[in-house]
Amino acid sequence: MAEIKYYWEDFTPGEVAQFGAYQVTREEIIEFASEYDPQPMHLDEEAAKKTFIGGLCSSGWHTCAMAMRMMCDHYLLQSAGMGAPGLDDSKWRAPVRPGDILSLNRECLERRASKSRPEMGLTRFRHTMTNQHGEVKMIIEGSMMFARRTPGAEA
Length: 155
What we know:
Elements: E1 16-23, H1 26-36, H2 40-43, H3 45-49, H4 60-74, E2 86-92, E3 101-113, E4 120-130, E5 136-147
Antiparallel strand pairs: 1-3, 2-5, 3-4, 4-5
């Protein structure tokens, strides 16, 4: 287990962080789709060309999983994270293709201390995924729960 570097207090509204350099491969797109989302545009390059997407692309769920990996590698595994109550919004803006190099922009939108659990705070983030050309691929918004460095202190 990594040393805890980030607590609820370390995420402040307006703060922005950029991270990741995740390169997507054809093989991983097909492997994920074979297991979890076996639609033609995710499995077969020739069949994908005949769809409105026009070529092989990752499943949106695979795109979410890649974002989660980048979040874990950059900050979640070093945080006093306590899970999440879910996503409020997820938009797949453009197909993720083999060869894309993905990164995330994390913006802290708001945070609040839990009224019922003084040891916890909730932080709402927007994560925007782009590729190496600056094309927006996905935007997700939701809250995460983090332990507080000083439970019950003024927020």
